[in-house]
Amino acid sequence: MRFFIDTANLEEIRKANDMGVISGVTTNPSLIAKEGRDYAETLKAIAAIVDGPISGEVKATTADAAGMIAEGRAIHALDPAHMVVKIPMTAEGLKAIKALAAEGIPTNCTLIFSANQALLAARAGAAYVSPFLGRLDDISQPGVELVQTIAAMFANYTDLHTQIIAASVRSPIHVTDCALAGADIATVPYKVIEQMTKHPLTDAGIEKFRADYVKVFGE
Ligand code: E4P
Fold first, then answer.
1. What tens digit of pLDDT does each residue of 120-171 get?
2. Residue 131 C-alpha to ligand 1 middle, in angstroms?
3. 191 C-alpha vs ligand 1 centroid, how far in Å?
4. How confident is the model at residue 62 (pLDDT cuts 50, 70, 90)?
5. Which one of 86, 95, 198, 215 is the catalytic residue?
6. How far is CA 11 from CA 14, 34, 40, in A?
7. Domains of the chain (ranges plus CATH)?
8. Measuring CA to CA, how many Å separate 75 from each of 85, 86, 166?
9. Which of 86, 168, 184, 193 maximizes ligand 1 atoms within 8 Å of its Cβ, making it the mutation to test the pocket?
10. Strands 22-26, 54-57: parallel, antiparallel or unpaired by DSSP?
11. If you take atom 7 of ligand 1, which residue's CA is the nearest one?
């Protein structure tokens, strides 16, 4: 499983990129709005930091296929080597995914909450599907089971090349669960990446090695 970072905060993106663990970025309108910067400029700045797929979502106000296609072309044009157009899972969204795929523009079908939605998006030609684990957990449905079902379903069809991005990841245990469930990618907030690096026995071990070294060899 690979890692994307799920944020539009440039500082967090730089820090995670410097760690060497991320190979892409996902954003959504809420994440970009939180940063208080221009929408398109933020996406361009992110694409200049990370050399990998950067998901930029069509505006929340665009609901019809024609609008999403036009906006998708514009998002892709911001940085054609990196930009992936994020399209919500609707009937109009599927039309837009098909049209953009025909033009060679990769898409990430977002707001996936059922296995059938993922299969439809894959058949329309989405490069990625994003099942939202955390939001399912929030309504007492086991989100990781959805990732597992989609992975098992896609494995039955060798002509499907759509990758599964486990999204709405909220904790380190979600990450482990997604890897075991067969997600291709987990998109993870910076806070969770930081939490994943930590273990109390690692900290205690570093402190003991330091103390033993200093006792014999000095500072
Ligand atoms: C990423 O593609 C999603 O937009 C994001 O993971 C949603 O996360 P949330 O459910 O924590 O808002």
1. 999 999 999 999 999 999 999 999 999 999 999 999 999 999 999 999 999 9
2. 9
3. 14
4. confident
5. 86
6. 5, 14, 17
7. 2-217 (3.20.20.70)
8. 7, 9, 22
9. 168
10. parallel
11. 168
Asked about 86 being catalytic, the answer comes back as yes
Output the ligand 1 site: residues, CB below 6 A: 6, 26, 28, 110, 130, 132, 134-135, 167-168, 187
* Rounded-to-10 torsion of CA 93, 122, 162, 194: 50
Query: Do the Cβ atoms of 110 and 88 come closer than 8 Å?
Result: yes
Residue closest via CA to ligand 1's atom 5 equals 168
Using CB atoms within 10 A of its CB, is residue 87 exposed (0-12), middle (13-18) or buried (19+)? buried
What are the two backbone dihedrals, phi and then psi, of residue 191, each rounded to the nearest 5 degrees?
-55, -40
Query: CA 93 to CA 157: how far, in whole Å?
Result: 23
Average pLDDT, the chain: 97
Residue 195 makes CB contacts below 8 A (sequence gap 6+) with 171, 172
Longest dimension (CA), the chain: 72
Amino acid making up residue 44: K
Which atom of ligand 1 is closest in space to residue 134's alpha carbon? Answer: 10
pTM of this prediction exceeds 0.90? yes
Q: How far apart (Å, rounded) are the C-alpha atoms in residues 124 and 99?
A: 9
